[in-house]
Amino acid sequence: MESTLLTTDFKFPSQTAEYHGKVRDVYTIADDLMVMIATDRISAFDVVLPKGIPFKGQVLNQLAGYFLDATSDIVPNWKLASPDPMVTVGYKAEGFRVEMIIRGYLTGSAWREYKNGCRELCGVKLPEGMRENERFPEPIITPTTKADAGHDENISREEIIAQGIVSKEDYEVMEQYTRALFARGTQMAAEKGLILVDTKYEFGKREGKVILIDEVHTPDSSRYFYADGYQEKFEKGEPQRQLSKEFVRQWLIENGFMGQAGQTVPEMTPEFVQSVSERYIELYEKITGMKFVKADESKLTDRIAENTLNCLQNLQK
């Protein structure tokens, strides 16, 4: 089994803060730049699972960089450089306390709620008579609050504005950017024989402007179906062939775990861990059309430290 990066503890020059998320570790430099390290941790149901996934951090970082570059003409973003396969360096922004989730199809948690009788999600009315994995007449935006710990909570556009979480003006920009990004992502996926089913975006504010931050269109933040066979499987009510983290959630559900109190994460066998790694690499190659080149992981932390330090020195000259 290849080595995995599960924790980081860097001390970069002019470092003013650090934050360890579920998957990413973020270091703030001089209160102006961010070093975002995509670890090999994997989370589901807001729980970090006990074993890392080889090359997952590299896949996430390189995919996020690919899409940040491919959408920078329609939405400004935080990225400045990617000095290491697992690292992106960019501008610090004041993050909004909501995540913008946009759904093109009724699946995942939305389907689970719909099946239980829900016909309104985050203030958006849902049509009657829909089936699992059915396409919405047009994509719907279903935001959530962004929790530091525990579960994010669904919230409506009206509640966000009324509670002053985001101003009306900024929220309208976020909505506009969300739809533009999803349209671009949908187009790029279709060119590779995939359907971008749903995804989430995070935004922040820098120098008075709303910008896109964090990852974009990765398997951690997005769900993809294969376009080939979609209609036939939908009509038969069969599960879709997909490239996303949903198969990990399904495996956990089948083994009695949904992140609830008293539940235990099932054993992650080497075979299962390897299969997850292969699925992440498959998505990278499928969505980019490029061969995934595994980086040398023999001295992971040394490599990350050296590459990041060189980048910061160049940026701060």
Descriptive labels:
317 residues, alpha+beta, eight-stranded antiparallel sheet, five-stranded antiparallel sheet, 17 strands, globular
Write the layout of secondary structure elements.
Layout: E1 15-20, E2 24-29, E3 33-38, E4 43-44, E5 47-48, H1 56-71, E6 79-84, E7 87-91, E8 94-95, E9 98-106, H2 108-115, E10 120-121, E11 124-125, E12 134-141, E13 144-145, H3 157-162, H4 168-191, E14 194-206, E15 209-213, E16 222-226, H5 230-236, E17 242-244, H6 246-254, H7 270-288, H8 300-315
Antiparallel strand pairs: 1-2, 2-3, 3-7, 4-5, 6-7, 8-14, 9-12, 9-13, 9-14, 10-11, 14-15, 14-16, 16-17
What can you tell me about this protein's structure?
This protein has eight helices and 17 strands. The chain has 317 residues and is of the alpha+beta class. The mean pLDDT is 94. The strands form four sheets. Strands 8, 9, 12, 13, 14, 15, 16 and 17 form an eight-stranded antiparallel sheet that branches. The chain has a five-stranded antiparallel sheet with strand order 1-2-3-7-6. Helix 1 (56-71) runs parallel beside helix 7. The chain is globular and about 60 Å long. Helices cover 33% and strands 26% of the residues.
The general outline is globular
* Major beta sheet summary: 8 strands, antiparallel
Residue fraction in strands: 25-35%
Order of helices and strands: EEEEEHEEEEHEEEEHHEEEHEHHH
Put simply, the count of helices is 8
> What share of residues is helical?
25-40%
Based on DSSP secondary structure assignment, what is the total number of beta strands? Answer: 17
Compute the CA-based radius of gyration: 19 Å
Which spans of ≥5 residues are poorly predicted at pLDDT below 50?
A: none
Termini Cα gap: 40 Å
Residue-averaged pLDDT, rounded?
94
Q: Which secondary-structure class do the elements indicate?
A: alpha+beta
